[in-house]
Amino acid sequence: METLDIELPRMALLYGLCLLPCLLLWLLGLRMNRDIGISILRMSIQLALVGIYLKMLFELNRPWLNGLWILMMLVVADFSILRRAGLKARYFALATFTAIASSILFSTGYLVILVIQPTHYYDARYIVPLAGMILGNCLQGNVIALERFYSALRRNENEYTTFLMLGATRWEAVRPYFRDAVKAALNPTIAGMATMGLVSLPGMMTGQILGGSEPWLAVKYQIAIMICIFTGNAIAAVVNLKLSLNSAFNAFDVLKDEVFVKH
Q: Do 56 and 156 have their domain in common?
């Protein structure tokens, strides 16, 4: 069974659906239509270009080309995480890249090599979309972890300093904020897994069913990807926060103000 194509006239009809929320926002006095239009245009252009590139990637299916694409995704995610967390890249870029790269490569490699076991472990059909799905979820988790951790430290700087003056090490002083940040990063994924299938039908499962796969096969792939997303998110958040400590504090264990982006 083939997935039905959406031809250009029907795509135009689809874009017309955006007019309703834009009208509602305009009636409410929210001048967001320009931002919405730019976002939809960027999304469409970017996805079109990615679609063209992925078609070529799948046809060539070269290990070095697949690896280069994943490397580019990691670099873009690295700077996106730090920008959204309000931290300067020159202090944290290496720590964040190391954390997300190690977690994504481990989770994706485990899933592809040990669980799925395709003929070629570097098959673009598997590693590119799976790595992208895990990375996309790790991106959001790492933004939450970094933003929550360093915001809490700045907000409770006196409490943190008091712990140090009472003889605590830097790790002992930051551990309560560290735990809260990791918990906040993982909560969306845990909540999503707990309600999956009841509240929402996952995107990967829906895509496979639309593509003609048997529902039970789609279920097994969805379970596999969610376990890998949780694992990758947890590893990345913990490693990222831990490595970032080396750049965030001075020799006296004082949080450096220059690591934050000035607004």
A: no
For 219-257, b/e burial (b = at least 16 CB within 10 A) is bebbebbbebbbbbbbbbbbbbbebbbebbbeeebebee
- What separation in angstroms does the CA of 90 have from each of 79, 83, 94, 95, 97? 10, 11, 8, 10, 12
Q: How many domains in the chain?
A: 2
pTM: 0.83
At residue 121, what are phi and psi to the nearest 5 degrees? -65, -20
Are residue 126 and residue 214 in the same domain, yes or no? yes
The 10s digit of each residue's pLDDT in 5-51 is 888 888 889 999 989 999 998 998 888 888 899 999 999 998 898 88
- Picking from 138, 143, 174, the residue whose alpha carbon sits closest to that of residue 254 is 174
Biggest CA–CA distance in the chain, Å, is 70
